[in-house]
């Protein structure tokens, strides 16, 4: 029972991470459930180590598999699952939560996941590197890119609000 | 072609500076690095704005995704097919957890299933019975189990509750909601009784919870197409322990026959 109760300690966080990652509560709940089932089946073969990191790793593997199966939900696509999320209200530290949400799902998945692991779940770089199976240096660069991208998107959002007539991003230059 | 210089280009590696600013926000810098970066911030308003923005992003993300308070609503909906291994274990685990967390009065699944109410009622009716508490006694346990298995059209297993001081005294067949149900009765040295109610329950969702009233308590769960309910009086903690163990014992059995 002790492994099981350890598992439960992390349930709320797993669930939060899955929701943030997918932007889709139903998908997230499926992911968490799959993850728990895997964990329950596999734990015997594991030595004592960082349970949370391991759970997040399992969850991420499932997510990536399912993403492939869904043919990569296109970033910012009209029918993307996160489009159904309730638009949050309010402003935090000068940022509109709704804009932050939109920007988050416009990040490429590998930037979104590292940003969520570190900024939301507050994993150390070391732990995030273990979950993502990349060197710590890569965590640092991806994270930094993710934050810069968020910054640009959020600034853009502000511009767009100010000048709604601006055309969308797909401008193709024609060369004479 | 000057676009190559554009700092918004995704493929540009972030400079060391930006990586350090980002690491500062996460508290991942050593003391000397930190001192250098903080000195830089004091001299460079652009860098200071970046750090403030990164911090704001972090706060906003945490506000966007608060930690869910309670677990239960998580398992309301369920797909069916390929998840098979470990599901019983999961149901037991969740039942144990919900009860352990004092969420006993909450139930998963949309409503409390009818079989739980029936189990509770059957306990109320038969547990106080002195002359005929069971139809078939435990001295004919093999016949009892094969008879009830035949009537429910499922291989039933009767868990031993000896560990808790309860001995099987027998069982009976009862009308259930969608067909027959079996009730197994156990008794301890003091004459206290608990019953295990078993019936077919085809809903493919994880279901568990408790029904209580009049000093009785029924803990129910569903696993692999069957609904189970353990009813008793008195000590809630011990009933809960028995239920979780029974659930595990029966889950193990179900694992072995469904391959």
TrEMBL record, chain A:
Q: Which UniProt keywords apply?
A: Sigma factor, Transcription, Transcription regulation
Q: Has the keyword Transcription regulation been applied to this entry?
A: yes
RNA polymerase sigma factor 70 region 4 type domain location, by residue?
98-150
- Residues of the PhyR sigma2 domain: 11-58
Keyword Transmembrane helix among record annotations: no
For the region Disordered, give the residue spans. 155-176
Domain of life of the organism in this record? Bacteria
Per the similarity annotation, which family is this?
A: Belongs to the sigma-70 factor family. ECF subfamily.
Q: Which PANTHER family match?
A: RNA POLYMERASE ECF-TYPE SIGMA FACTO, RNA POLYMERASE SIGMA FACTOR RFAY-RELATED
Q: Which NCBIfam families match?
A: sigma70-ECF (TIGR02937)
Q: What is this protein called?
A: Sigma-70 family RNA polymerase sigma factor
Q: Source species, please?
A: Crenobacter oryzisoli
TrEMBL record, chain B:
Note one Pfam family from the annotation: zf-HC2
**Transmembrane is among the record's keywords:** yes
- Highest rank taxon of the organism: Bacteria
UniProt domain Putative zinc-finger: residue ranges: 18-42
Q: Which residues cross the membrane?
A: 82-108
Q: Specify whether Transmembrane helix is a keyword of the entry.
A: yes
Record keywords: Membrane, Transmembrane, Transmembrane helix
Q: Which InterPro entries match?
A: Znf_put (IPR027383)
The protein here is known as: Anti-sigma factor
């Amino acid at each position: 029972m002790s492994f099981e109760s350890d598992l439960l300690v992390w349930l709320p966080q797993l669930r939060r991470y899955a929701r943030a990652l997918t932007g889709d509560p139903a998908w997230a709940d499926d992911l968490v459930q799959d993850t728990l089932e895997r964990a329950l089946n596999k734990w015997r073969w594991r030595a004592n180590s960082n349970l949370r990191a391991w759970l997040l790793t399992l969850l991420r593997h499932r997510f990536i598999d399912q993403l492939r199966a869904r043919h990569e939900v296109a970033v910012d696509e009209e029918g993307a699952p996160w489009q159904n999320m309730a638009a949050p209200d309010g402003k935090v530290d000068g940022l509109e939560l709704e804009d932050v949400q939109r920007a988050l799902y416009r990040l490429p998945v590998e930037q979104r996941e590292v940003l969520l692991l570190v900024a939301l779940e507050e994993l150390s770089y070391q732990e995030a590197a273990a979950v993502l199976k990349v060197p710590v240096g890569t965590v640092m660069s991806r994270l930094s890119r993710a934050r810069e991208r968020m910054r640009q998107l959020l600034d853009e959002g502000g511009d767009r609000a100010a000048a709604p007539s601006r055309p969308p991003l797909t401008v193709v230059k024609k060369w004479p | 072609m000057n676009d190559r210089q554009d700092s918004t280009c995704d493929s540009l590696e972030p400079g060391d500076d930006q990586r350090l600013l980002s690491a500062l926000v996460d508290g991942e810098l050593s003391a000397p690095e930190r001192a250098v970066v903080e000195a830089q911030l004091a001299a460079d308003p652009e860098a200071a704005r970046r750090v403030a923005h990164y911090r704001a992003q972090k706060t906003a993300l945490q506000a966007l995704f608060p930690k869910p308070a309670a677990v239960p609503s998580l398992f309301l909906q369920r797909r069916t097919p390929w998840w098979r291994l470990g599901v019983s274990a999961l149901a037991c685990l969740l039942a144990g957890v919900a009860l352990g967390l004092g969420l006993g009065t909450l139930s998963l699944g949309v409503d409390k299933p009818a079989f739980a109410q029936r189990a509770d009622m059957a306990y109320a009716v038969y547990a106080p019975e002195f002359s005929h508490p069971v139809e078939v006694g435990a001295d004919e346990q093999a016949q009892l189990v094969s008879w009830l298995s035949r009537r429910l059209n499922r291989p039933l297993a009767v868990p031993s509750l000896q560990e808790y001081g309860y001995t099987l005294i027998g069982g009976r067949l009862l009308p259930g909601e969608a067909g027959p149900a079996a009730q197994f009765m156990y008794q301890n040295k003091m004459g206290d009784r608990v019953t295990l109610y078993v019936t077919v329950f085809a809903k493919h969702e994880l279901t568990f919870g408790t029904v209580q009233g009049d000093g009785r308590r029924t803990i129910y769960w569903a696993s692999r197409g069957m609904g189970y309910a353990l009813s008793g009086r008195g000590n809630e903690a011990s009933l809960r322990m028995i239920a979780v163990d029974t659930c595990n014992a029966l889950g193990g059995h179900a694992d072995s026959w469904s391959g």
